[in-house]
Amino acid sequence: MSAPTVRSVPPGRVERYLLDQLRGGPLHFTLIDPEKSPGERAATIARGAVGLGSHLILLGGSTGISPAGMGAAARAVKAAVPVPVVIFPQGPDSISPDADAVLFMSLLNSRNLDLVVRAHARAAPLVRKIELEPIPMGYLVIAPGMRVGEVGQVDVVPRDDPAAAVGYALAAEYLGMRFVYLEAGSGAPEPVPDSIVRSVRSAVRIPLIVGGGIRSAADARPLLAAGADVLVTGTITEEEGLGDAFRGIVAEVGRARVG
User: CA-to-CA distance for 155 and 153, rounded, in angstroms?
Assistant: First the structure.
């Protein structure tokens, strides 16, 4: 058995790690679904992604991920990679103490108050008890929204309405959230429009994360040029593995960091 990987990020320091890394330019996060890729399979994907240049592993994606399933994936991935392992939660039941942090995110444009704040009120005591680092985040769904728009009972931001996205993003910043995430939806045919990314980036001072529908370097390039601080990919990894599309996206992020 090989020696365990020495991890470079102490517990409780994920946000500091991200801010330090962002000083060098944009970042890439790999999203892995523990239900579709449990345990050691998640670790294998994470090891390959980080080897290609991804900066953080997100665990989430399906509804109904159990704490046991999340914990098994988090333990396996943490043993495999030196970067943070962060929960992308589907609710309080997907939280595990085995990760480094959790995206403590409010679904800003949901009609369901559970997803805006009530679920957070139920989860907060557990997050405190298990000493899991919360990363406060505003989560905003842009059309088409896909499954997250349906499950999240979202009034999606139209793709031709940057002003609406700016209003939500500024509200998130003024409410004290320290990151904002623009989401087109897993499997979206196109990513968030670069016009929306550019408008939000020019308005807010907090880091801007963009995900959904990013399938190629050609998709990634205008988002980075518009000011995205982080790109998140998940679907292409599930569908194609760490192939040319994934490598191209990570390479674009790397070029933006060098530039």
Answer: 7
Q: Which CATH number fits domain 14-254: 3.40.190.10, 3.30.479.10, 3.20.20.70, 3.20.20.390?
A: 3.20.20.390
C-alpha 164 chain-centroid distance: 21
Does 130 have pLDDT greater than 90? Answer: yes
Q: At what angle do helices 67-80 and 39-52 cross, to 10 degrees?
A: 40
Are the C-beta atoms of 203 and 181 separated by less than 8 Å? no
Length of the chain: 259
pLDDT, tens only, 154-186: 999 999 999 999 999 999 999 999 999 999 999
What share of the chain in percent tops pLDDT 90? 88
d(CA 35, CA 32): 9
Q: Widest CA span of the chain, in angstroms?
A: 54
Query: Which tokens sit at 149?
Result: 């728009």
Token match 């589907």: residue? 90
Cβ atoms of residues 203 and 166 within 8 Å:
yes
